[in-house]
Amino acid sequence: MSSPRTQANPQSSLPFGEAKPGFRTKTAATRLTPEELAEIEAAAESAGQALSEWLRGTALCAARQRPADLADPAELVLAEIWAVRYTLLNLFHAAAEAAAEGRQLLPDSVLKIRDQADARKLQQARKLLDDFFARGRKERARMP
Questions:
Q1: Which residues of 25-49 are buried (b: 16+ CB within 10 A; e: fewer)?
Q2: Those residues with Cβ within 8 angstroms of residue 84's Cβ, 6 or more apart along the chain or in another chain
Q3: Model-level pTM?
Q4: pLDDT band for position 71 (50/70/90)?
Q5: 17 to each of 13, 51, 120, how far by Cα in Å?
Q6: Confidence class of residue 3 from pLDDT cuts 50, 70 and 90?
Q7: How far is CA 119 from the centre of its chain?
Q8: Is 110 strand, coil or helix?
Q9: Is the distance from CB of 85 to CB of 116 less than 8 angstroms?
Q10: 90 by DSSP, 3-state: which?
């Protein structure tokens, strides 16, 4: 990593080292092989952006992504909806089986179904979202 640098703006009335809010005054440098440089230059060109603009956007996008182990709000909502659906279907099924056998549904059975739903809900929500986005990518790939 490099240390941040501040450059003076000759047109500025601010003291040296101070910048107007919103202006980019810091730099981050890295070393690349000629092949790596060619690769990112090609990516920036294909995106129709200057190299610095493309690098900044790519770096900020990566920095702002949530960690893989944290769920975003959409995943949490979908997980809860999946858990309610799973719980209801399994409770109806368990109650029907119990009634067919002439017995009542035990509270422990209800708690077991709830615990199973809680244990699986986030994993299932992520799977649903992954499947959804994979279908979208396949459909876009087929478009002319």
A1: eeeeeeeeeeeeeeeeeeebeeeee
A2: 117
A3: 0.50
A4: low
A5: 11, 25, 53
A6: very low
A7: 21
A8: helix
A9: no
A10: helix
CA distances from 65 to 58, 68, 130 (A): 11, 9, 16
C-alpha to C-alpha distance for 124 and 91, rounded to whole angstroms: 19
Identify which of 81, 98, 90, 78 has the alpha carbon closest to the alpha carbon of residue 114.
Answer: 90
All residues at 6 or more sequence positions from 18 whose CB lies less than 8 Å from its CB, including other chains: none
CA angle 132–48–68, rounded 5-degree value = 35
Instruction: Give me the phi and psi of 8, to 5 degrees please.
Output: -80, 145
Asked if 121 and 83 touch (Cβ cutoff 8 Å), the reply is: yes
Amino acid identity of 34? P
Angle between helices 73-100 and 107-142 (to 10 degrees): 130
**Whole-angstrom distance, CA of residue 74 vs CA of residue 117:** 18
- The residue among 140 and 42 whose pLDDT is bigger is 42
Q: Which two tokens stand for residue 83?
A: 């858990």
Burial class (CB in 10 A: 0-12, 13-18, 19+), 105: middle
Report the C-alpha gap between 116 and 134 in whole angstroms.
Answer: 27
Report residue 50 as tokens.
Answer: 């200057």
